[in-house]
Specification:
This protein is of the alpha/beta class. The protein has 2 domains: about 180 residues, Vaccinia Virus protein VP39 (Rossmann fold, 3-Layer(aba) Sandwich), CATH 3.40.50.150; about 50 residues, CAC2371-like domains (S-adenosyl-L-methionine-dependent methyltransferases). The protein is about 25% helix and about 35% strand. It has a 7-stranded mixed β-sheet, with helices on both faces. Strands 6-7-8-9 form a 4-stranded antiparallel β-sheet, covered by helices on one side. Helix 1 packs parallel to helix 4 and helix 5 crosses helix 6. The longest helix has 15 residues. Bound molecules: S-adenosylmethionine. S-adenosylmethionine binds next to helix 3.
């Protein structure tokens, strides 16, 4: 089972601002090339799993017929506000069930790593494959692998916007096969004052072999693209034979 993270409920409305420097448009441009290269099915139905506030869908929708699912209603609320014509559904990636089949299923920016065990990763991939058309493509972007992860590095990041300033302090530690991050975020906002959130969350540290092996086990022809689309996380592409 994946864990429930209350923080997303609290900070969903600040998510886009916190990621203002992430190049979603550029990422989608690269993802489009990967989809063109590997997808064998004819359609253009795309499902973005753990879509958050819909930042990738915002660009994907120019080329594909899109739908998004996420565990947190608060994140979906932000997505729906931006894109009234797109369907966003609350669902858990391991368990969602639809009659519809897709040509492309994406799960980006560490989303898949919220499955906290190899068993849960496999169950989630089985569910993805079940919702994929033959010749369809799955693209996943896990968090760091067990060897890439660098624990115990104190981090400070700040965001300055006209009426909002945000400071985030965090430290990630290794907890067996998980990365456990503790974070404190303080926000000062015009009309709202000064307030803080505290969060501790775990994500899985899968090895490259664990990911590729399980993609193959669930019937995908799988490859790894080192450093992926962000130069930070690797990307894995699976094609349903
Ligand atoms: C780091 S955010 C990435 C969001 C989005 N893909 C992006 O690139 O901005 C991770 C997302 O995973 C969602 N999430 C976590 N566990 C989930 C689960 N079990 N099923 C579906 N979504 C989940 C969270 O609600 C959050 O929106």
């Amino acid at each position: 089972m994946t864990q429930i993270r209350p923080l997303y409920n609290q900070f969903a409305e600040y998510y886009d601002l916190l990621h203002v420097n992430k190049d979603y448009a550029g990422e989608v441009k690269e993802l489009k090339k990967i989809i063109k290269r590997y997808k064998k099915s004819d359609g253009r139905e795309l499902l973005d799993v753990a879509c958050g506030t819909g930042r990738h869908i915002f660009y994907f929708k120019n080329y594909f017929s899109c739908m998004g699912i996420d565990f947190h209603e608060s994140m979906l609320k932000v997505a729906r506000k931006k894109m009234k014509d797109i369907t966003f559904k609350q669902a858990e990636m391991e368990l969602f069930s639809m009659r519809k089949r897709f040509d492309i299923i994406t799960c980006l920016y560490g989303g898949i790593s919220y499955t906290l065990s190899v068993r849960s990763l496999k169950d989630t991939l089985i569910n993805f494959v079940h919702h994929l058309k033959p010749g369809g493509v799955i693209i996943i972007e896990p968090y760091f692998t067990d060897t890439q992860f660098k624990p115990n590095r104190p981090k400070l990041s700040t965001i300055e916007h006209k009426n909002i300033k945000i400071a985030r302090l965090s430290l990630s530690r290794r907890k067996r096969n998980l990365a456990s991050r503790k974070m404190i975020m303080t926000i000062v906002e015009k009309d709202k004052g000064v307030f803080s959130f505290e969060d501790e969350r775990d994500v899985a540290l899968f090895s490259t072999e664990q990911i590729l092996t399980n993609m193959k086990r669930v019937g995908l022809k799988a490859i790894r693209i080192k450093n992926g689309i962000t130069q930070e996380f690797d990307l894995y592409v699976g094609v349903k034979e």
